Amino acid sequence: MAYMHSGVHRAGGRLSVADIAAQPGGIEALQCRVHELRSRGVHFAANAIEQEMVALDLSPRG
Record's superkingdom (predicted)? Predict the structure, then answer.
């Protein structure tokens, strides 16, 4: 994902949804991650990412 090499670092090595979304291509990376998690059956994590995206008004337009 693009944010991994961007130089953005947080305590504990974790990034928030807002941190990722702020990076170039970050929203697309989050959408890909949600898809990947769902395909692996990890719906709780996918739901958590989607809820944060909605709270930050990052949901896809269309």
Answer: Bacteria
Tokens of 53: 């995206």
How far, in Å, are 31, 48, 49, 57 from residue 53 at the CA level?
Answer: 10, 9, 6, 6
Task: Please give the model's pTM, rounded to 2 decimal places.
Answer: 0.72
Number of alpha helices (DSSP H) and beta strands (DSSP E) in the chain: 3, 0
Residue type present at position 37: L
Cα(9)–Cα(2) distance, rounded to whole angstroms? 13
For 13-38, how does the pLDDT look when each residue is reduced to its tens digit (9 = 90+)? 788 999 999 999 999 999 999 999 99
